[in-house]
Amino acid sequence: MRNGPFAVLGAAVLWGTAGTAGLLVSADSVALAAARLVIGGAALALLADRKTVTPRLLLAAVAVAAYQLCFFAAVGRTGVAIGTVVAIGSGPVFTGLLSWLLYGRRPGARWAVATAAAVAGCAALIVGGGAQAGGQVVSGVLLALLGGLVYAFYAVTAADAIDRGASSNAVMGVLFGGAAVIMLPILLWRGVSWLAEPRALLAAVYLGLACTALAYLLYGRGLRTTPVATAATLALAEPAVAALLGLVVLGERLTPVSVAGLILLAGSLVAVSVSEWPRRPAVLEKEVSC
Question: What is the pLDDT of the chain when averaged over all its residues?
Answer without folding.
Answer: 83
